[in-house]
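Problem: given the chain below (104 residues), write out its structure.
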Amino acid sequence: MAEEREVPKGSVAAGRRVRLPSGAEPPIVVYVNGIQQAEGTDYELRGTEVVFSRPIVKEQVGGMRYLAMLLGLFGTYRKHETVDVEYSLGGQPRLVSDAAILPD
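Solution.
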C-alpha cells in the first residue's frame, strides 16, 4: 500500500489523511479529482479518517503567482488534487467536496 509518486514541480505533498465528518456512516465512497478510489488499494478507513496509500498533491501558490492569477494575467496548470467523500448521516446521503487534507 506504500505506492510513492514523484511530486511535480510547483506542487507539494499535502498529506495522506482526510477526517470523516462526525457521525459519518457507510456507505463511504471516496473520489480524487472525480475518480472513484478503491478501498484497500487506494485508501483505508481507519476510525474517523480516510488514509490514502499515497500523498495527495496540492498546488503551491506563492504571493506573486497568486496576485498574477487574481489580476487575470494567467492561470495555473500545476497538479492540484481534490478529495470528495460521499457518506450517509441519519440515513441521508451527504457529500464533502474538496475535503481538507491533514498533514502527516
